[in-house]
Amino acid sequence: MKNIGKTSQQLVTLVVLGALLAPSLVFGQAAAPARSIYTAPKAELDKITDEGMNRSQVMAHIGYLTDVIGPRLTNSPNFRRASEWARDTMAKWGTKASLEAFGPWGRGWSLKSFSIAVTEPTYKSVLAFPSAWTTSTKGPVTAEVVFIDVKDEKDFEQYKGKLKGKIVMISAPRELKNDPLGLGAPFSEEDLARLANYVKPSTPARTQEQTDASRLEFARKIAFLFKTQQLVASEGAAVLLENSQRGSGGAVMVHNATITAPPDPTIVKTLAGVTPWMKEAEPFVIPTVTMANEDYNRLVRLIRQGVTPKMTVDIQAQFHDEDLMAYNTIAEIPGTDPQSKDEIVMLGAHLDSWHAGSGATDNAAGSGVVMEAMRILMATGLQPRRTIRAALWSGEEQGLHGSKAYVEKHFAQLPKPTKEVPKPQPVKGADYEKLSVYFNLDNGAGRIRGIYLMDNAAAKPIFDEWLKPFHSLGAKTTTMMSRGASDHISFDNVGLPGFGFMQDPLNYMLDFGLRTHHTNQDSLDYIQADDMKQAATIMAAFIYQAAMMDEKMPRKEAKQ
Ligand SMILES: [Zn+2]
């Protein structure tokens, strides 16, 4: 049967699908008409693939962001430089590029100089990094090291009057035995099959009681940590040493410093909602360093043997208050179809990174791939029907701030849940219906192996079709699994189709020999050019077809 659509293959697929999903549809009662799945003509996909695989510039983008600019903490000078460079580069290719402000968000932070060493019982240099937005020491601080070894508030007493001017260790040591040092690996066929066959469990994995109990336990732990920090703050510690929560063998996971308010209810009240990147936090942030697990554990062992180590720490950091607004970088290829040119298809990745490494696999890889996808489309001269809009977000590492602000401004507001309305419905804005789909890339630097469907069954046959030309490049898997923790969630939360691509884990994630995710080891060395070429080509092909298909991407059924 010849198709009415662009390719016969679609129709065949459709019929097969129909027969599988609802035989009654095909053989009996005439229910909802079958939907056609758009795929771009082979010649157009070949153009995209040829440009992406044979004239790639993706590693140049990623190399410039990582080796030339370096870590891109939100609102830091490096971040501003990176967003202006990305805007100007995409404008040079002919896209309509701009920086879009949101906020005021907060202050920037950068490191001027840093040194640290154990000086007694013997001299030893250690692997450690200042936490983001930490305050500076008043020059080099040489002091005894104290480990706060407490299980209960009554244990606090022994430290009263003993912490002033000291270097204080607050987090627990972490045994390394179960920390895999294995080299990062791609997904195996078994891994991919498991993902492809994933079925959302009908009953939640945990009972409500279990969920409440673990929430309670988590809240208890946080409250106790807060009390311990209050002790350290009120006793006047000079430096706070934190243990790397993940990683080993030279990989140190470093995030931001925390606010340590003294146990004064008025102060605690005024600090509600204050974040370390706000000016009000500065008086309540003790100079903070995150140390490699191996170095941290040794200090704890020394102290538990009755030896008092001494260290010298010198942090010289700078806050940047010139502009408290934050910026997303936006670039567009305008649509050409009179009917659908005002409709939008988006692709994106976060440009901001943590600061101990160069933010390569998280997420210069994704940002470089998104830029490259736009370059590929401009170079091919293909004319999209809908407008293609790329976004390089800021504030992702602090809580998806850039994409949330963008979705709120352009598409929908999501009211805060209340006791009365625990699951509020999004308040749709003028452009809500104009947004067809958003594609995200933020799972490290591995090649694309498929896509997470976010529980959107209607999107599966479309993506299965669009992956077919790339099976030979290792991308074939669609899974009903939802994967969160990145900017597509800002779209998914308001009921708009937002998807994250599935990538080979390699050295990225915790359970595959952590090396790069939020660590000092996040460098260009862990990015393979072929993987990035493949990813940019697939992203260009996906966004182009989303811009060309007749209908918008199907929304997932609203859950009650
Ligand atoms: Zn990321």
Descriptive account of the structure:
This protein folds into two domains: about 5-30 and about 40-105 and about 325-415 and about 425-555, 3-Layer(aba) Sandwich (Aminopeptidase); about 110-175 and about 205-320, Glucose Oxidase, domain 1. The protein has helices at about 10-20, 25, 40-55, 60-70, 75-90, 190-195, 210-235, 265-270, 295-305, 360-380, 400-410, 460-465, 490, 530-550, and strands at about 95-100, 110-120, 125, 130, 140-145, 165-170, 240-245, 290, 310-320, 325-335, 345-350, 385-395, 410-415, 425-430, 435-440, 450, 475-480, 500-505. The protein contains 14 helices and 18 strands. Helix content is about 30%, strand content about 20%. It has about 550 residues and is of the alpha/beta class. It has an eight-stranded mixed sheet with strand order 1-10-12-11-15-18-16-17, sandwiched between helices. Strands 3-2-9-5-6-7-8-4 form an eight-stranded mixed sheet, with helices on one face. The site of zinc ion (ZN) has 6 residues, from α10.
